[in-house]
Amino acid sequence: MAHRKITFAFQFLLVIIWLFCTVPASIVCAQNAPERQLSLKSMRHLNYTNKETHLQKVQPSVKQFTTQSTGFSAKGGGPAACFDYAGGPYADQGIDEAGCNGASISAPYEAWLNEVYFTQVVSGGNYTFSICNGYSATAWGGAATITAILNGTPSAGTITGGTLISTVTGCSLTFTASADGVVFFVLSTATACGGAISQVDNGFPTITTNSGVPCGSCGNTACEVGENYCNCSADCACNISGTFIDFDVDGNAIASTTPSAFCENFVTGFVNPSVPAHIMYVPFAIFGVTCVTDYTVSATEGMLYIRSGDTLALITGPVPELTVLWLQVTQADVDASGGVTTISISGAGGDCTDALDITWTGVANYTGSVDVTCKSVLVVGMFLEGAYNTTSGDTTMRTDINTLIPLTSPYAVAPWNAPAASVATMPTAVVDWVLVELRDPATNALVESQAGLLSTTGYVFDTDLNFGLTFNATGEYNVIVRHRNHLPVMSSGTVDPDGTLLDMALLPNILGGEQQVSRLGALNLFALKAGDVNANGIINRTDFNIFKQAGSLLNTYNSSDCNMDKNVSPLTGDFPLIRQNTSALAPNQVRY
Question: Which of 177, 281, 444, 454 is 20 to 30 Å from the Cα of 87, by its Cα?
Fold first, then answer.
C-alpha cells in the first residue's frame, strides 16, 4: 500500500470511530463442516471495557446567533380597546381608522394597543423602547402597560416562554439585554376609550440604543452585527460548514491538530482502530443555521454513511445539521481522486452551499502524529489439541495457563526469531501466544511473521486486541500457523492476507489433510497436534526426552506441558499426547 498522510485546511480534534464491515473469505470450507461464524461475541470477547470504543461525547458547540430587523414588526394582536383593528402591522405610512365614537383619526405612524411588537438586540446593549409620542391618558383612554420578554415565542397574540425583562405602566421602558436575541414588547389594552372623541394621534414605537452595539438595518446590503441569514437573508449569506469533529475514547481524549482518517480493521462491532487497513472513514458534521433544517451532502469519491443503531447506514436523503456523517473511501477511491476528495453541502432552498476539500497525501493512524503504511488484515482460526475443552461439548479451549502466560511473546527467540510482541495485561480469554508466518510460495522464504493471541473460541487477535493480524505484505503467500509445543501446519493453497479469513480448523484449508492434524471428538473440526516440545516440526523421541527431563512440575508455563493444564506430569495428561502423536511430521516447508 502507498504510504499516505492526511491533511486538511482546517484544524480540528479527531478521535475514534465506530466501524462496520464485511470481509470475503478466499478459502473454501467443506460443505459438511460445522459453521464457524464470526459472531460479534467471538470477535469482541477479548476486548476490555476500555478497549471498546463508543461513538460518544460528540457535542459541537452551537453559537447563539444574534437577530435584527428594520424598525419594528407587529406580532399577534386582536381587537384593540379603542380601535377595532386586529393584528395590523406597524407601517411607514398613514393609517386612517374610526375612533371610539366614529370619528376619524389620522397619524403618520400608529401603535395599537393589545399588540405585540418585536425587534432584535445585542447582548450587553442598553435600549429604550418608547411609544410616548402622542401618548396621554386622554389619547389612550387610560393607563397601558408594556411588557418586555427576551427570546420568547409568539402565540395567539401573546408571547410564551422566554425571559421576562420588565413590565412598566406608561409609555417607555429602558433595559439592558442579557443575551443576543429578539425582544418582544407586549402592549396591554387601555382601561377605557374616554368620555370624548380623542383627537390626539396615536404614538409610534421607537427603539434607541443608549450604549453597546447599535442595531443593524436589514436591506442595506451589509450584514451587520445582530443580522444573519435567518433574520436578514437580503444582506447575509447562508453560512454553513462541514466540520471535522472531535471524539474521545471512553473519556480519554485523543487530540490532533492535523485530523486523520481512520482505517477500517476486519471487524464488526466496537473496536480499537489503531491499526489501519485499506478502508478509511472520515467523520464530520454540518454546522449551519437554525432556519435551514435539511442538507444534501455528496462526495466526489467514496460513500457517505450515517449512524443507524449499532451500524453505519448509507445516506439516501437529506440530513439535519449537527449530525455526525462518515465518508468511507477505499485505497482505490483515494488513488482515483488525484489527491483530493470534495464533500459538497447544500441547504434546503438551494441558496446555502459549502464544500470541503480533503487532500490525501497519506493515511495516518488514530493519534494523527505517526504516519503508517496501510496494512493488510488476515484473520486466522485454529485450535490447539492440548488446550481443547473435551468435556464442555462446545468448540472452545481451556485457559488453565492464562495467569502464567508471559506478557512478551515467546517467539522472538530461536527457532522462530519472530519480531517481538507484548501486551500490558493478558486478557482472561487468551489460551496462549501463537505465531503466524507468510512464506513465498516459490522459494519458501519467510516474508513476514507476527505473534498473536489465541482466544478460547479459536481465533487470533493482535496485541491491540483487534480481530486478526495485520501484515505489510501484499500478494499471495503460503500461511503457516505455529505454537510452541504443537505441530505447525500450512495452508493448502496460497492466501492473500488482505481481508481474508483462513480457518485452519477446517480440513480443506490444511496442507496434507487429516494426517497433519487431530480431529476434535465427533466434530468435523481439527486442531494442531500436541507434543512438538522442541518446536522443530517433528514429534519423536527427542521431544519425549525433553519432556522426561522436565520431571514433575506444578503451576508452570513450560513447553513440556503438552495438555496446557499448567502442570507437567510424567504419567498422565502430557505423556499420552506425546505418545499418540509420535512420528507425526509437518510438511518440509514448515520444519525448522
Answer: 177
Which tens digit of pLDDT belongs to each residue from 157-189? Answer: 567 788 999 988 877 889 998 887 778 887 765
Q: Which residues contact 35 (CB under 8 A, 6 or more apart)?
A: none
Q: Is 580 helix (H, G, I), strand (E, B) or coil?
A: helix
The full set of domain ranges for the chain reads 5-18+53-61+239-362, 73-93+107-211, 376-581
Asked whether the predicted pLDDT for residue 232 surpasses 60, the reply is yes
Residue 41 has pLDDT above 80, yes or no: no
d(CA 38, CA 468): 12
341-354 pLDDT, tens digit each: 888 888 876 578 88
What is the pLDDT at residue 546?
93
521, burial (CB in 10 Å: exposed 0-12, middle 13-18, buried 19+)? exposed
d(CA 347, CA 292): 6
**Cα 551 off chain centre by:** 55
Residue 509: per-residue pLDDT: 93
Q: Which of 380, 564, 541 is nearest to 484 (CA)?
A: 564
- Would you put residue 300 in left (φ > 0), alpha (ψ -120 to 50) or beta? alpha
Q: pLDDT for 104-141, tens place per residue?
A: 444 333 445 556 777 777 788 888 887 775 555 444 44
Q: Are strands 73-75 and 95-98 parallel, antiparallel or unpaired?
A: unpaired
Helices (H), 241-395: 331-336
Helix/strand/coil (H/E/C) assignment for every residue in 5-63: EEEECCCCCCCCCCECCCCCCCCCCCCCCCCCCCCHHHHHCCCCHHHCCCCCCCCCCCC
3-state secondary structure of 108: coil
- If we measure between CA atoms, which residue out of 32, 29, 113 comes closest to residue 76? 113
Domain 376-581, second-level architecture: Sandwich (2.60)
